[in-house]
Design a protein that fits this description.
By secondary structure, the chain is an alpha/beta fold. 28% of the residues lie in helices and 27% in strands. It is built from twelve helices and 19 strands.
Amino acid sequence: MSDESTLPQFAAIVVAAGKGLRAGGELPKQFRRFRGKPLIRHSVEVLAAAGAEPIVAVLADDTRDMAEEALSGIGGIEFVGGGATRQESVANGLEALAATSPQTVLIHDAARPDLPSEVIRRLLGALQTHPGAIPALPVVDSLALAGDGEMMAGKADREALRRVQTPQAFRYANILAAHRAWNGEKTAGDDAQVLTEHGGSIALIHGDERLKKITFAEDFMTAHSAPFRVGQGFDVHRLVEGEELWLCGVQIPHDKGLSGHSDADVALHAITDAVLGAIGDGDIGTHFPPSDPQWAGARSAQFLEHAVKLAAEAGFALGNIDLTLICEAPKIGPHRPAMRAAVGAMTGLEENAISIKATTTERLGFTGRGEGIAAQAIISLYASA
């Protein structure tokens, strides 16, 4: 199996019915933003790209709207209500697949966003000779048995132990029968335990450290590929008569204004793109397309505030802004204090973290001829709790 196109057909269940209280925040953790997008979307996109069809998302009853928004644009998603336990939630997902009865199914936790496609290949390959397969990693630390009073009561043989991950892969008929036969008075740690209780065998395939589960608030911070990010943005708008001139959220007296679908605040557009670029979440046109009439004449402050909010949901706070405006006129210096104050109000930054500079092109090019204004912004983000 050299690429996704050669993978056997399979369905997938993504379990996202928990509340994720240990991760903190107002939203259940599976819908909080992580590396630029909702946590659940990361693994669902990988499963969809690998050919999973359908993909069943198992949800708490009051999170359907959040899930639809988080997974918008991904085809083949079915939404199913969860149960009181994880085992009941998975059973609901399996029953939802009964009409299509796929040969194989992968069952994954939404809280494991970084899903390598090679793990999917290994799991599906193992199902050719086993009714179930799970990714597992060796235990590298020494283990101790705890006794009364947190005293060491003995040692455990780490050579015989493995750390179990998801997705877990099964022949559909086998895992469905096992869940239907499950004794509801017992607690199932995972679906592999459900199958082995029903007499099925489980193959261990090599997992991946990238499949770390996001559990606590600090996981959102430490799971970033870097503790800080840098983003840059660039924008240009034409100067025309009959338009207002807005820069950094401040109206500037001038005989011409900037032309655009919104208020054409070229400075805020550049800063917004820099923030979105730093979290890898598209650009201003992605979130506020000029083809959408609702943004006609809109104040660009809401664009920047939205980008800062997305960065916060992804676990980052704004560190500083360095903005350069490129124009022959108007003079920026007299308006700089008001601009810094306005940008500070939008972003929550102290004014000493906001630099607004201006330069000319010595009358060269479109800015030199007074035909437009350009802006370039560089921003930093740092990982926050």
